[in-house]
Amino acid sequence: MSAVPQVIDAFGRANLVGLGERHGARQDSEFRLRLIRHPAFWRAGADIVVEFANAGRQEILDRFIAGGDVSAAELANIWRDTTQPGAWDSPVYEQFLREVRQVNTSLPAADRLRVLAGDPPVDWNAPDAQIRQAVEGRDEFAASVMEREVLRKDRKALVVFGTLHLCRRRSGTLAELLRGDARARWFSIIPLEGDAGTPDEPALVNLAGHPVGFLEANELFAKGTRRVQVVDGKVVLVPAQVFEPDLKLRDVADAGLDFGSEPPEWVPRPPGVAGTDYGTEIDRRRAILMRLAQALS
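and the corresponding structure tokens:
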């Protein structure tokens, strides 16, 4: 069975379906596009909460998704002016918004899809303390958007965020922040590289009942990463621990979207940004983040 209707079927038992993504991956993007094009998706009555949009631009986002006039500069600021400078310049994110807009052209007004911006408004000219508050409060802000716009209104939502934001058993994630809300019923899906699917036809794997669900969560999420630690007076690199030891994949997510054994294909941002006003501003904002990180170290 195709993974697209299986993901949509998850709305029958959950009102928050988290679709973890590998930022800028072509395979992830193409699956999302297929998902929102499927007639059963809009019939499920789900909003779409995205990580890559500034909530301060929600009015512009609403206008664009509804088919209204929005200039190219206004549109770009939705994903450019976020707490993550330059992170969303891959064209896959603009393509997603344009596809939602196109889908809406064929739907009755009452059934049209809505995209909710999950990234907090940020003023990059503000004092460092205010910028830090916005950057460090990303998940808390997104959770508040979901509580106000989805749970309080008894709606459903597809939540498109980086995978770790959607995992259980990790402090500060969306799933954990909303754990105490009885209205929030999650079904979280993480991308996998395995042998059950292919890049063009991924397979949905139930982690509770599949052998892959018994894999160590840290083996997947901390693979290839290291952190600095002082051991017996010596500075060494040790494997990063994203989760508590011994947690399994089935403990942190409900399903995996298996894209096959090939590594993801990244869709880079268009060339020509370096040296432009926008490129210079991105460099300035990244320097601010570096300064904030150094101040905390």
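(Above: one complete record from the training split.) Strands lie at 16-21, 46-54, 115-119, 156-162, 186-192, 203-206, 226-231, 234-239, 255-258.
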